[in-house]
Amino acid sequence: MRVIAGSLRGRPIKAPEVRTTRPTLDRVRESIFNVLETLLQRRGLVYEKLAFLDVFAGSGAMGIESLSRGGMTAGFIEQNHQAFITIKANLERFDLNENSWCYRRNALKPGDAHTRYDVIFLDPPYEKNIGPKALLRLDQELWLKKECLVILEISQKENLPSLEGFDLLERRSYGTVQVLFFARQPENDEIRP
Q: Which of 1, 122, 138, 176 has the smallest CB count inside 10 Å?
C-alpha cells in the first residue's frame, strides 16, 4: 500500500497487523480522490483549505493521502489499539503530526473534536450498518461542517443506505466494494452553526 499522489507520492504506508482492518485498495483510493476533486470543484471549494476526517481509519491511508495532496489538516478515528499505533507511526514517519489529530475512540461515541471537518470518509466493518450510525453521532457531536461531503465505503452486498439530511451525489462500484458520495441537503445549512 502506497501514497498515490502529492508530496508523499510512492511512499509506502504501513498497514496494521490485525485482521479486523481492511485497507482501501490503492486503485480505489485513487478513484475516490479523483471523484472528490471533481465534487469539490463543483462546490467551489479549495482542497488546500479542507479538513479531512478518516473514520474507522485502519492504517490512516485515506487521511494521509489527503494531507499528501495538500489538505490543510486530517483527523483519524480508530478504536483498535494496534491500528491506532500504526496510524501514529505512519504520521510520525511522514512528519505529519503538526497538521493531524488521532482519536482512539469508538466512532459511535466520538466525544469532542479539535475542529470540524469538511470531508468525512467512513470505512466501517461491512454488513453491520455502522457507517450511517457513526455519521449521525459525529454530526450530533459537531464534528461536521455545514457544507461537508461524506464518503462511505460499503460492501456490494449491502443495500444503499439513506443518510438523513444528506443527498447522494455519486455511487461508484469497484469489484466487491461500493463507494457512496453524499452532501448535506441545502435546507439543513440554515440550522447549522
A: 176
**What are φ and ψ of residue 6, in 5° steps?**
90, -160
Determine the average pLDDT of the residues in 66-72.
Answer: 95
| CATH classification of the domain holding 164 | 3.40.50.150
Pair 56, 128: CB distance under 8 Å: no
**Does 112 reside within a domain?**
yes
Which of 154, 161, 147 lies closest to 177, judged by CA? 154
CA distances to 149, 150, 183 from 42, in Å: 12, 15, 12
What does the pLDDT read at residue 187? Answer: 59
Whether residue 123 contacts residue 154, with contact meaning beta carbons closer than 8 Å, is answered with: no
Q: Is the pLDDT at 76 greater than 90, yes or no?
A: yes
Q: What is the pTM of this model?
A: 0.91
In terms of DSSP bridges, do strands 117-122 and 73-77 run parallel, antiparallel, or are they unpaired?
A: unpaired
130 — phi, psi (to 5°)? -85, -35
**17 falls within a domain:** no
Flag whether pLDDT at 33 surpasses 80. Answer: yes
